[in-house]
Amino acid sequence: MKIVITTFAGSRFDGIAVWLGGTRMRCAIPGSDDLVEFRYQKGKWFSDQGKVVEIRFYGTIFSDDDPAALDVVRVDPPLADAARIN
User: Where are the domains of the chain?
Assistant: First the structure.
């Protein structure tokens, strides 16, 4: 799923969410050799350095027609709430 990350300093990066689990998400970001991990806590996303970031999700992973997506929503309610499609 495509995402756009805005840092606390205002920089913007496109990325791809490659793993969602619990309250964590790992993303591929151009120019980075490793996946970048973000944590969702108390309604906010945090970088691996503990800085607040804004993440916008683009795509369709949460759908009433997709049983697999419904399983993700049941297992990971914090991410389901955070990943409302724009």
Answer: 2-82
